[in-house]
């Protein structure tokens, strides 16, 4: 412990209002016994009866470390072997400006990835907004359709109105007032024949069938009557 640090301890003890207050001064050692550069040793010097007691202290780093930060330069070290190794192999890993070559490449790749991620995020945000707009349009169309269905149900609906008009037109047709119709064997209506004539047994006028011109409405062929008339004379 240097003489300046001892004087600082004594002056602080005199200046403090509470003389029983313990004052700690943490000083890192210049180099560790093993000559490593990544480890720092701390010690607390406690003043008691004008004597300083050295107490080792272990400090835990509770801060948030940046994951993207890299050490661009090695920590200072007094070991001669470290300087020789650094001077021999530094040209393979370090650029002439000082920073590591691999670190520069990693930083460039990281910047490119960040740009791609920002572009993908922007496209995703635009697509989400477009989906929200389409959903609102679909909801509005569904609402209009449901309101239209309710109005059509209250008015009977267009289909019901068309069916009602067709039924009324069918009932107003003169053919619907005829209760019975006489049909031929081919299911064609016989004109001029009423149900009363059929009940009385009167013969209907013979008409040719539209499907079979040679057959009359009664079901006999035209040429068969002539053959039956000739048979008694023979």
What can you tell me about this protein's structure?
By secondary structure, the protein is mainly alpha-helical. The chain has a domain at 1-60. Helices cover 49% and strands 7% of the residues. The protein is built from six helices and three strands; from the N terminus they run H-E-E-E-H-H-H-H-H. The chain has a three-stranded antiparallel β-sheet with strand order 1-2-3. A hairpin with a 2-residue loop joins strand 2 and strand 3 (51-57). The chain is elongated, with a radius of gyration of 58 Å. The N and C termini lie far apart (165 Å). Mean pLDDT is 67; it is low at 35-39, 67-71 and 207-227. Keywords: Coiled coil. This is BRCA1-A complex subunit Abraxas.
């Amino acid at each position: 412990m240097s003489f300046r640090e001892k004087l600082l301890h004594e002056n602080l003890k005199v200046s403090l209002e509470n003389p029983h207050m313990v004052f700690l001064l943490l000083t890192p050692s210049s180099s560790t016994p093993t000559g490593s550069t990544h480890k720092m040793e701390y010690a607390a010097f406690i003043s008691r009866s004008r004597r300083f007691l050295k107490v080792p202290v272990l400090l835990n780093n509770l801060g948030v470390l940046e994951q993207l930060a890299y050490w661009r330069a090695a920590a200072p070290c007094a070991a001669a072997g470290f300087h020789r190794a650094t001077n021999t192999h530094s040209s393979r890993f370090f650029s002439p400006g000082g920073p590591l070559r691999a670190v520069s490449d990693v930083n460039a790749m990281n910047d490119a990835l960040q740009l791609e991620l920002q572009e993908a995020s922007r496209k995703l945000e635009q697509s989400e907004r477009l989906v929200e707009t389409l959903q609102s349009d679909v909801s509005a169309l569904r609402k209009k359709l449901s309101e239209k269905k309710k109005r059509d149900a209250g008015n009977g609906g267009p289909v019901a109105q068309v069916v009602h008009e067709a039924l009324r037109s069918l009932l107003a047709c003169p053919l619907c007032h005829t209760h019975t119709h006489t049909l031929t064997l081919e299911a064609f209506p016989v004109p001029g024949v009423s149900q009363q004539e059929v009940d009385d047994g009167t013969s209907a006028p013979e008409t040719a069938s539209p499907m079979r011109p040679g057959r009359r409405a009664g079901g006999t062929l035209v040429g068969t009557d002539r053959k039956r008339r000739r048979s008694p004379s023979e």
